[in-house]
Fold this protein.
Amino acid sequence: MIRYIEGKLLKKEEDRVVILANGVGYEILLPAIVRKTIQPRKAGEDGEVVKFYIHYHQTERQPKPVLIGFNYEPEKEFFEKFITVEDIGPLTAVKALVQPIPKIAKAIEERDSKTLESLKGVGKRTADKIIATLQGKVGKFALMREDQIPVEVEVVDFKRQVEEVLVRDLGHKMGEAQKLVYEAMLRNPNISTPEELFEEVYRGQKGAGQ
């Protein structure tokens, strides 16, 4: 299975790119949030080196492998949660992700169906399914920042893990991340998993912004 590709940009099309890696040209579908970060290749210009985290999709109904690319690991992680919603397959999700992931995640957490209905191909019924399936599970992604840096996170304990994800994947300063985690644990000392802690951090951020 392919999880990561790095190579030269050969071609950029409406919803996909072709990447040359180790002598092989890979066709990779890109959601709009990723496509807008890729500059078109000019005639006669050598292709820039690009890299993508890959969601690999192949089923009995879809025997031809489909590669879907993301700039950051958290984008891919959110996508893989998003496609667990009934009626949202990978190809539908690629078209739907036209808004920044933090905005989509915030809409899910706050049960904001109007924002979700602004996604391409998502009507009221599907928006309701998204909220029913994912509300309470994507607060982590609402904390993402534009200048996030994707790196691997070493798991020490769940509090340390959350701090490192906030810094390394979601773009927060270490001091800020430690404060967010500390305050979340004060509010709810019964938290015992990273997912619960991310949700409490998100709730604290939401409350501070009101």
Observations:
- Residues 17 and 51 are 11 Å apart (CA to CA).
- DSSP finds ten helices and five strands in the chain.
